[in-house]
Every structure is written in C-alpha cells, then in structure tokens.
Amino acid sequence: MAARTAPDPIPPRKGVNKADLSRTVGERLGSNQAGAAAVDAVLDAIIRATVAGDRVSITGFGSFEKVDRPARYARNPQTGERVRVKKTSVPRFRAGQGFKDLVSGSKKLPRGGEVSVKKAPKGSLTGGAAATTKKTTKAAAKKTTAKKAAPTKETTAAAKKTTAAKKTTKAAAKKTTAKKATAKKTARQR
C-alpha cells in the first residue's frame, strides 16, 4: 500500500485594498499616480453625495444611499437590561443585478477584457419609457456632488407633474372617505 499524501492546502486569498485598486486603475491609465487620483476622486464623490442624502446609482454595479435608523430599545446581552439606542444614519450598499450575476456565477467574467456595465433594461427603474421622470431627476442628482444644481426646465416640469398627480390622488381619496363616512351614518340611522 502506498502512503497517502495530504492534498496541497489552499493558499489563503488575498483581499484587495485601496492601494491594490489604485495600482490596477493606474495600469490602465498609464501611471500609478493617475490611478490613485482617480480612485480617490470616485470615492470622494460617492462619500460626499451619500452624506448629503443623495442616492448614488451605478447601473450594473450597485447603489449607495444614506438610511436613517429610528431610536429604539435594545437589550444589554450581559445583564439583560433594557438600553435606549439613539437615532442614527448609516450607509447602505445594494449590489446591482449585473454584479450579482457575476458573483453568483450565472454570468462569467471575460478573460483579459474589462467588465462592461450595461444599460438598464426597458421597464426597470433606470431605463425604459416607464421611468422618464426618474431619469431626469437622477440626471440632476448626478450633476450635484458637493453643491445643489440649479433646477432645469426638465426637472421642474417633472416635479410639477408629480405634485399635480399627488394632489389629484389625495382629492380622490378624500372624496371616497367622505362617501364612506356618509354611507356609515345613513346605515346607523336606519
């Protein structure tokens, strides 16, 4: 009988940090300094927009947003005592469908080439005829990184349309509740 040898151990996977990412981007841009500046600029823009309360969406990759958590009561695990936790805001990242597909393995990474971020399909939140008003507001949100942009004709028109639609739905809701109330009163009187 031959002695069995242990299989080779799997080498530990090295994580990617900011320096590695800067180096990779620098290889494509031609210099490490340009790569570091590009990574810093992208991260700075994402952080500033998220802190300001804007949602940063990168189609196919994901979105970053600020989420408010209300004040609540929690339990101290050591003593079981009830403790009050203050209201706080936290960042949230949600992966896009293209990114999810690549990670799950349903789509494969191209060899040697770069991963392309495709446009959103029709009918989704960022594309198609159903989301034309959202497109104009998202375009206006992207223009603002540190400052608020001056409203354009498109965004003001979209805002007017949505407020008009809200007013008509509120009026219709008030009418139906008034009709229900009068129907209940007449039913009680009989």
Q: Could you describe the 3D structure shown?
A:
The protein has 190 residues and is of the alpha+beta class. Helices cover 47% and strands 14% of the residues. The protein has five helices and five strands, in the order ααβββββααα. It has helices at 18-29, 32-51, 97-104, 132-143, 153-189; strands spanning 56-58, 62-69, 72-75, 82-85, 88-95. A three-stranded antiparallel beta sheet has the order 1-2-5. It has a two-stranded antiparallel sheet with strand order 3-4. Strand 3 and strand 4 (82-85) form a beta hairpin. Helix 1 crosses helix 2 (32-51) and helix 4 packs across helix 5 (153-189). The longest helix is centred in the last third of the chain and has 37 residues, at 153-189. The radius of gyration is 26 Å and the shape is elongated. The termini are far apart. Mean pLDDT is 75; it is low at 126-149.
